[in-house]
Amino acid sequence: MTRFVAAHEVGVVRGGRQVLGDVTVTAPAGEITALTGPSGSGKSTLIAALAGLEPVTTGRIVWEDTVVGPRSRDLRHRCGLVLQGYGLVSLLSAAENVELVLQAQGVARAEVRDRAREALAAVGLDGAGDHLVEQLSGGQQQRVAVARAVVGRPEVLFADEPTAELDPATRDRVLHVLLAEAHRGAVVVLATHDRYVADVADAEVELEDGRVVAGSA
Ligand code: ADP
Ligand code: MG
After folding, report:
1. Which ligand neighbours the alpha carbon of 162 most closely?
2. Total structural domains within the chain
């Protein structure tokens, strides 16, 4: 398992603008670390940088003892991602989207089906497995993305506003799933502007204008 994911004095310049500046954060395994702050404060950029999807201009990202760089594609197999826009395959069913992860891991066929069904049930989508993603509501798609991110039991889980489209009951289900991932020993990092979600997290790092203003570790 990966014991922590960290940013060390990370700066990101995009289009000539300093989007992140001098960000130092450590997200340990076994906990949920919440990134909070107003819209445009850099939460999504920091998640993308931690995941190795956004190149950093200064500083570095490390996953325990591995420095994340442009060649760190192998890290993708160790992490689950819930990004804005979800990145689901719209012409496949909900279950098929989730099963893809397990197929890529070489999990046996019968187990693939069972685990995908369980992951969908955990986010309140029992019975929706056969629906095409394009027929699902935004909130349902968001939950398929959560199921897909956790079904492979990743060491590191990144979730960008994973409850943004959910009502309180389904939000609680998703939070329960994310807490279970942390208890399993995963590093869980989420971005949220929902105070309720931030309060469920074990630690909170608040950003403003691309800088950490509270809770840096
Ligand atoms: P948050 O997730 O907290 O709302 P973001 O990380 O999305 O913040 O954005 C941080 C800053 O980067 C914002 O000022 C935003 O306008 C800017 N930004 C976001 N995406 C891009 C992009 N593709 N090109 C240039 N600037 C961007
Ligand atoms: Mg964002």
Report:
1. 2
2. 1
